[in-house]
């Protein structure tokens, strides 16, 4: 945050969180939620409101594929847009960035206007150069872009403010699907098998788990062929999901949710020896074409299949006996979904709706939900 404050005090960047961070010091950093110095995430308090503060969210030096979807230098330098750039010119820059990341979606200019509203941190109806520099740096980050695109959706945390490449989002009471979080020093020494059985012990009651699961299925719907194209979830793991005290699912970390267009550009023609070389994040896989030794651009598993994989043990453990068999059957047919299947989109929405209906029907009779 010192870099941000130096840049703020010299007038390079600006944003709604800058004054609290650098002058009045009413943005406090609490417990650290990340174990990596290159993507710091803290529970924080901003003007008495709890939030999650994220800063320095660049990738580690080990880069997937040798190139990353999020270039760090754009952020550190805060060199764009340059002095003298008109608002119109800035809009064109943002438009071209979106076109490259999201492909040629029909309504990109609406999204550009939305970004300008977000960038105008002090709500004076004008975007200053400092605000534009902060916004440009943040737009390089997938998570920020997704938060703006999905800002009216229930499962995306609200953006509270930003300063340079630091941003504050609404706080989520429980920052993992499972009910116990340990200091990372202890985490290092716990065997993963033992950790998994511990996790299973500390989970909410089944109706509450079902409500959280419905939230994840709804989020999958939100990012599947939405108004600005399709987004791929490339790290579908319990640590990236949280929920609030009403058991509504909230995404805690969306850095590895990427626009499909962007990923296809990045992965196609990548040199490969086997399918193992064609992975982005932890689980966006394509196949290696052995005749050309290049990765193909079609990701094999849809988001829904990966979400069901994640939810399988979570939902089956403690599931009411009268729906257990049906639930298991539906989860397995969901996990088997492949992007290449002929009627994928129809099958996708059918499986998704069946699962949601089964869970809702079961929990609408209980007080827990």
TrEMBL record:
Pfam families (UniProt xref): PIP49_C, PIP49_N
Gene source species: Cercocebus atys (Sooty mangabey)
UniProt protein name: Divergent protein kinase domain 1A
Occurrences of domain FAM69 N-terminal (ranges): 1-118
Subcellular location: Endoplasmic reticulum membrane
Annotated gene: DIPK1A
Chief location bin: endoplasmic reticulum
GO cellular component term of the entry, any: endoplasmic reticulum membrane
Family, similarity comment: Belongs to the DIPK family.
InterPro entries membership: FAM69_kinase_dom, FAM69_N
Topology within the bilayer: Single-pass type II membrane protein
Keywords linked to the UniProt accession: Disulfide bond, Endoplasmic reticulum, Membrane, Signal-anchor, Transmembrane, Transmembrane helix
Keyword Disulfide bond among UniProt keywords: yes
């Amino acid at each position: 945050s010192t870099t941000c404050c130096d840049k703020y005090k010299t007038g390079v960047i600006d944003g709604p969180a800058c004054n609290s961070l650098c002058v009045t010091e009413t943005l406090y950093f609490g417990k650290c939620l990340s174990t990596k110095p290159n993507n710091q995430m803290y529970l924080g308090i901003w003007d008495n409101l709890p939030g999650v503060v994220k800063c320095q969210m660049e990738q580690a030096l080990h880069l997937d594929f040798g190139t990353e979807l999020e270039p760090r230098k754009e952020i550190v330098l805060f060199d764009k847009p340059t002095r003298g750039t008109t608002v119109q010119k800035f809009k064109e820059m943002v438009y071209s960035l979106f076109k490259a990341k999201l492909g040629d979606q029909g309504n990109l200019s609406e999204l550009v206007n939305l970004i300008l509203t977000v960038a105008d941190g002090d709500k004076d109806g004008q975007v200053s150069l400092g605000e534009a520099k902060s916004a440009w740096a943040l737009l390089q980050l997938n998570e920020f872009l997704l938060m703006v695109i999905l800002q009216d959706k229930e499962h995306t945390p609200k953006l509270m403010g930003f300063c340079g490449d630091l941003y504050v989002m609404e706080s989520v009471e429980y920052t993992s699907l499972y009910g116990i979080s340990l200091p990372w020093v202890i985490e290092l020494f716990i065997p993963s098998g033992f950790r998994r059985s511990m996790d299973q012990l500390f989970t909410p009651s089944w109706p509450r788990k079902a409500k959280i699961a419905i939230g994840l299925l709804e989020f999958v719907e939100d990012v599947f062929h939405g108004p600005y194209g399709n987004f791929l979830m490339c790290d579908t793991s319990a640590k990236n999901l949280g929920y609030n005290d009403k058991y509504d699912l909230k995404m805690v970390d969306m850095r590895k949710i990427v626009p499909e267009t962007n990923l296809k550009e990045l992965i196609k023609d990548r040199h490969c020896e086997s399918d193992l070389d064609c992975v982005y994040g932890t689980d966006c896989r394509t196949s290696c074409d052995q005749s050309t030794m290049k990765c193909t651009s079609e990701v094999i598993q849809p988001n829904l299949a990966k979400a069901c994989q994640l939810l399988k043990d979570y939902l089956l453990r403690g599931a009411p006996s009268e729906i257990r068999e049906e639930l298991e059957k539906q989860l397995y047919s969901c996990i088997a979904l492949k992007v290449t299947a002929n009627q994928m989109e129809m099958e996708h929405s059918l499986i998704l709706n069946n699962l949601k209906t089964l869970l809702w029907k079961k929990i609408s009779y209980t007080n827990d939900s």
